[in-house]
Design brief:
By secondary structure, this protein is α+β, with helices and mostly antiparallel strands. The protein has helices at 2-6, 10-23, 31-38, 42-54, 71-101, 143-150, 154-164, 177-190, 232-252; strands at 58-60, 67-69, 104-111, 114-121, 136-137, 193-196, 203-211, 217-226. It contains 9 helices and 8 strands. 31% of the residues are buried. InterPro entries: GAF-like_dom_sf, HTH_MetabolicPath_Reg, Tscrpt_reg_IclR_C, Tscrpt_reg_IclR_N, WH-like_DNA-bd_sf, WH_DNA-bd_sf.
């Protein structure tokens, strides 16, 4: 416990203490009270609160000058709740997919322009894949990533590629923006993405989007297996299954497809 405290950055700890303190109050709180109750120098408290206010974590009343939690915390909380919702709702369907297809199934979201894996289930015959729950992988060369990119505005896609690039991992990796743009258009048309040995030699993945109640892509689900098994009837079965399951999960999240 002492070691953890020694590793803390004091200014961050104080800022978080202010957020927790305001969360415990039912009304706006003046700076003097925050300073006194938290035993933080008034000038220090003011500087921390000003920074938190600039980032939307705290709001100041234009009438009293007092402080309360900002709307940005609500927005962050909503994102966490949505992620938990899709994780919990998808869980039994992921298990069913693994049992029926016999390959690895991933659930992922887009985080800071990269794929973040929030669930992974392997079958008894799964091959070794570098993905793990909680790690980030590139979006442009993974099935789940291409799905998550496909439904974004084009300028947002450009920004992500500007920041992360189009690193080549295999001979099949897409490494120029025009080709990626064309690939994403195909994904929107057919409703699913294929990673054909684009991130890892010998690995083929099929991924499809999970939509939320607003019609936005909340997450992506994929089936991954060796090229030797992901072909013919097995490949067709995987596509059919991933589309059915993602649509079921989307409907449970409140999505209603426009006719």
């Amino acid at each position: 416990m002492d070691d953890n405290k020694n590793n803390q950055i004091k200014s961050v700890a104080k800022a978080l203490a202010i957020i927790d303190y305001l969360a415990s109050k039912n009304s706006d709180v003046p700076l003097s009270q925050i300073s006194r109750d938290l035993n933080i120098a008034k000038s220090t408290a003011h500087g921390l609160i000003t920074t938190l206010k600039d980032f939307g974590y705290i709001e100041q009343s234009q009438f009293t000058g007092n402080y309360k939690l900002g709307i940005h915390l609500f927005e962050l909380g909503s994102k966490v709740a949505n992620t938990l919702d899709v994780f919990n709702i998808a869980s039994p369907y992921i298990r069913q997919l693994v049992e029926s297809i016999g390959e690895t199934v991933h659930l992922a979201i887009l985080d800071k322009g990269e794929v973040l894996y929030i669930d992974k289930r392997e079958s008894s015959r799964s091959i070794r894949i570098s993905s793990q729950i909680g790690i980030h992988l590139p979006a442009h060369c993974t099935g789940v990533g291409k799905v998550l990119l496909a439904y974004l505005p084009i300028e947002e896609i450009r920004e992500i590629i500007r920041n992360h690039g189009l690193t080549k991992y295999t001979k099949n990796t897409i490494t120029d923006f025009d080709s990626l743009k064309e690939e994403l258009e195909k994904i929107r048309e057919c409703g699913y993405a294929v990673d054909n040995e684009e991130f890892m030699d010998g690995l083929k993945c099929i991924a499809a989007p999970i939509f939320n109640s607003k019609g936005n892509v909340e997450a992506s689900l994929s089936i991954s297996g060796p090229v030797s098994r992901m072909n013919g009837c097995e490949y067709d079965k995987a596509i059919k299954s991933i589309l059915e399951v993602t649509m079921t999960i989307s409907r449970l999240l409140g999505y209603r497809k426009e006719s």
